[in-house]
Amino acid sequence: MVAASTVPRQNDAGARSVLVDAFGRRIDYLRLSVTEYCNLRCSYCMPAAGVPHVPHAELLSLEEIDVLLRAALDCGVRRLRLTGGEPLVRRGFPELLQSISAMRAGGAGLDEVHLTTNGVLLPPMFDDIVPHLDGINLSIDTLRAERYHALTRRDQFGAAMRALDMLKGTRLRLKINVVVQAGLNTDELADLALQARDHDLEVRFLEKMPFDGGARDAAEPHWDHRDILAELRRHFPNIESLGRAANATVERFGVPGFRGRLGIIAGFSRTFCGSCNRLRITARGRIKSCLYGAYAGDVKQTLRSGGGEEELKALLRRTVAGKARDGFAAEAALKARSENESMSIIGG
Ligand code: SAM
Ligand code: SF4
């Protein structure tokens, strides 16, 4: 295995290193899950019964997350996304955001903090959360109440729409995530896209990926990025590609007359792996250097066996060293499983 290099880097917080994998990709984006639980049950993400119970003590504590973040920042992580499960169900989440803000104010070198949420719990927590963030990805797959209930198996459409309305008036970079589900919401892509006509936000259409915690190889219809674009073009013939920013998974599109943008994320087709800059850490502290690959390191074990920030940095370097070339190579290296993992456990 080729070792990941750490290249010294100077900035206002002193000498730091950056994580570079065996293919020369700099890894500076951490997606950190803070819980496996969720208040919804989206069928593409988890079974109707939810994910298995995990004792609270099995999750990284807020103090352990703090040590982890300091180690990651010292290894050159510059962008953080908090995800889950549903991050807003995690006890102490506002306090976690506050401590991250304090780290930033102390010159930790963290450029951006984003949140991915279904928004249901956001309205009452709004003032405690929004000031600490640069952007929010809000997951809403339909604009119809009954369909929302069917897709999420919960009756929370009103709360999610309230969150959307509140976020439209903020300075945050707002993105709406729509998982495209053949035959279930494909007739609504144009209506969802119209959210970007009058508001400066991005509506992103995601290919559905095989992470629903259910049986493998279920033959089902699938819409890929070409199908999605064809449908958008049918409604908006002048749609044009704005390309893909460096390291981005999303290809952006503009439509004349729209204030915001559209986007397509080919997460199943995996068209963007060559410039991947991501590392994922689950709520239990397991590290995945590729969404499609195996767990490759354990933050909790490292910390609870007496390791500290230095040991964590070594662990991050080792994990990055083993990052696969792309999602296909990572998947091929996995042992065959009869079940998909749940995205709620991996951290989407
Ligand atoms: N609960 C939060 C939410 O729904 O935004 C955060 C966690 S969720 C796992 C993160 C993102 O992953 C959401 O936008 C969700 O729609 C997406 N997601 C979940 N399962 C997926 C799947 N099988 N394929 C594609 N996207 C998926
Ligand atoms: Fe919950 Fe998000 Fe998964 Fe839906 S996608 S079940 S909101 S974790």
The CATH superfamily turns out to be: Aldolase class I
DSSP strand content: 15-25%
What is the overall number of helices? 12
The CATH class label is Alpha Beta
The SSE order reads EEEEHEHEHEHHEHHEHEEEEEEHHHH
Could you please describe the fold and organization of this structure?
With 348 residues, this protein is an alpha/beta fold. The chain has one domain (13-346): TIM Barrel (Alpha-Beta Barrel). The protein is 30% helix and 21% strand. Bound molecules: S-adenosylmethionine and iron/sulfur cluster. The site of S-adenosylmethionine has 21 residues, from strand 6, strand 8 and helix 12.
Any key phrases for this structure?
binds iron/sulfur cluster; 21% strand; alpha/beta; 12 helices; single chain; 348 residues; disordered N terminus; TIM Barrel; three-stranded antiparallel beta sheet; binds S-adenosylmethionine
Quick take:
This protein has 348 residues and is an alpha/beta fold.
Strand and helix layout:
Blueprint: E1 5-11, E2 14-20, E3 26-27, E4 29-33, H1 62-74, E5 79-83, H2 93-105, E6 112-117, H3 122-129, E7 135-139, H4 145-152, H5 157-168, E8 173-180, H6 189-193, H7 195-198, E9 202-207, H8 225-235, E10 240-243, E11 250-254, E12 261-265, E13 278-281, E14 286-288, E15 297-298, H9 299-304, H10 309-321, H11 327-332, H12 343-346
Parallel strand pairs: 4-5, 4-13, 5-6, 6-7, 7-8, 8-9, 9-12
Antiparallel strand pairs: 1-2, 2-3, 10-11, 11-12, 13-14, 14-15
The protein binds S-adenosylmethionine and iron/sulfur cluster.
